[in-house]
């Protein structure tokens, strides 16, 4: 995987893009829709794109794991959000949007947007959930084959396109594992509380299995309408998950029934012991 620093555009993004409109905000940065000009050979900027502005310093090291993982967004896989260009707007300039600009494909909505409609009576059918899960698994197969952990799989980071495909997005917390020894595992605690795997919460060494857990928690959210233990504070939720794993799937107010295949998938993907969790590739072969 090539570090993003090799591909940083030298152009001033404030002059390249116009009509910036804020469409989302997060801990790491804000997301805008914008229009880009034609004639840029490395970009699909003839129409409207999404731009995530990350508030950080420009990447410099070619060995930086986070850079390499981030650049996999450029992967031309149908279930990974496309990255078109990377720009840097210096905090020392007069720009109102300093930071790294990731010019991305603009999707219709997030899975979180759809799940949030549960109070209005929208309940996802199981075959729709299965299709979304399969799409995310395909994306994870690509990442995991490159030893990359996403570390923040959740409904906000699964985007839904008009053609029905789901795409994994937001690689802010992604990291690439090394090839040898203990470096094959990580121990830094990152992610979002309600979707975090037990071993990640406990700051134990962990690998790509944490993404499988998070996808299981996302499936739980699709069934229930809320992520696991959303009634608890983040600190209380991660403590409970570290001690007892995923809670029972209470379907009151969510999906009315679930098949045995769905429940089996949920059980497999959220095994407390990481080594007992099937890989993304194995889960793609299950009946669900």
Task: Provide structural commentary.
It is globular, with a radius of gyration of 19 Å. A hairpin with a 5-residue loop joins strand 9 (158-160) and strand 10. Helix 6 (209-224) packs antiparallel against helix 8 (260-269). The two termini are 32 Å apart. The chain contains nine helices and eleven strands. The chain has 288 residues and is α+β, with helices and mostly antiparallel strands. 28% of the residues lie in helices and 17% in strands. It has helices at 13-16, 65-71, 111-115, 126-145, 198-201, 209-224, 234-244, 260-269, 280-283, and strands at 8-9, 18-25, 29-35, 48-54, 83-89, 99-104, 109-110, 148-149, 158-160, 166-168, 175-176. The protein has two domains: 4-104, Phosphorylase Kinase, domain 1 (2-Layer Sandwich), CATH 3.30.200; 109-283, Transferase(Phosphotransferase) domain 1 (Transferase(Phosphotransferase), domain 1, Orthogonal Bundle), CATH 1.10.510.10. The model is unreliable at 39-45 and 60-65 (pLDDT under 50).
Quick recap:
The two termini are 32 Å apart. This protein has helices spanning 13-16, 65-71, 111-115, 126-145, 198-201, 209-224, 234-244, 260-269, 280-283; strands spanning 8-9, 18-25, 29-35, 48-54, 83-89, 99-104, 109-110, 148-149, 158-160, 166-168, 175-176. The strands form three sheets. The protein has a six-stranded mixed beta sheet. A three-stranded antiparallel beta sheet has the order 7-9-10. A two-stranded antiparallel sheet has the order 8-11.
């Amino acid at each position: 995987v090539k570090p993003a620093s090799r591909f940083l555009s030298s152009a001033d993004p404030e002059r390249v893009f116009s009509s910036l409109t804020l469409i989302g905000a997060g801990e790491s940065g804000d997301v805008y829709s914008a229009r880009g000009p034609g004639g840029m050979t490395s970009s699909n900027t003839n129409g409207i794109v999404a731009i995530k502005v990350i508030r950080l310093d420009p990447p410099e090291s070619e060995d930086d794991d986070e850079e390499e993982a981030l650049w996999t967004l450029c992967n031309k896989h149908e279930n990974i959000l496309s990255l078109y260009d990377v720009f840097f707007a210096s905090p020392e300039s007069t720009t109102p949007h300093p930071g790294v600009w990731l010019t991305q494909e603009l999707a219709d909505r997030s899975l979180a947007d759809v799940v949030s409609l549960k109070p209005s009576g929208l309940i996802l059918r199981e075959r729709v959930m299965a299709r979304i899960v399969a799409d995310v698994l395909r994306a994870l197969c690509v990442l995991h084959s490159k030893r990359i952990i996403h570390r923040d799989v959740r409904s906000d980071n699964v985007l839904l396109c008009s053609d029905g495909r789901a795409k994994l997005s937001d690689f802010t917390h992604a990291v690439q594992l090394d090839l040898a020894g203990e470096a094959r595992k990580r121990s830094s605690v990152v992610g979002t509380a309600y979707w975090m795997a037990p071993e990640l919460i406990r700051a134990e060494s962990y690998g790509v299995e944490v993404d499988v857990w998070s996808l299981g928690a996302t499936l739980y959210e699709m069934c229930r309408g809320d992520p696991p233990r959303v009634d608890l504070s983040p600190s209380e939720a991660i403590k409970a998950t570290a001690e007892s794993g995923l809670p029972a799937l209470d379907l009151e107010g969510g999906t009315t029934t679930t098949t045995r295949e769905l429940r089996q998938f949920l059980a497999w993907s959220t095994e407390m012991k990481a080594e007992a969790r099937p890989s993304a590739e194995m889960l793609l072969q299950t009946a669900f």
